[in-house]
Amino acid sequence: QVSSKEGESQCKEKHAVLLSPVGKLEISGCETGLHEIKLPKMSMLPSGAESSAACEVCEGAEEMTEPLKQCTAWLRAYFCEPARMASLPVPAFHHPLLRRDSFTRQVLWTLLRDVKFGEAVSYKQLAVLAGNSRAARAVGGAMRSNPIPIIIPCHRVICSSGQSGNYGGGNLMKEWLLSHEKLQKEKLA
Length: 189
Description:
methylated-DNA-[protein]-cysteine S-methyltransferase activity; Methylated-DNA--protein-cysteine methyltransferase
């Protein structure tokens, strides 16, 4: 009953939906780790009142795996209590893209490790950090294929011109996430 892609261990995938200030985030993962966070498309920015709305799991709470629990705790802290993020573990990842050795994986891990909350980096700077200064375009491709947005913060990667650049959740969401981090970082400072 559990289908498996070739060469992959059999996963019993579980799903949860987290109601967040930017809409419903669909999260999936197995016992081993997180598979994906699906972002909603935002047509308008949340107002101040909505953006301080609590983050609640609205579907799937009863059968969450440990990585899903860690993911929702991390996201809740990200949106509602950024000061707590430092003390929370980043959930394990179990997406094939993050297990295969590739430049994309290298870029995503570099981004997760080196570009902190409230910071931004250009595609070119991230290419340099990931070890290939001429790979800015490939960095863009890696951002597009990021299966775990927000936790792997592809929204923090912007154009050298200072323009925000494209984003899977739409440019409004990217701008909202960047300004949320900037405001929260100022509060924490």
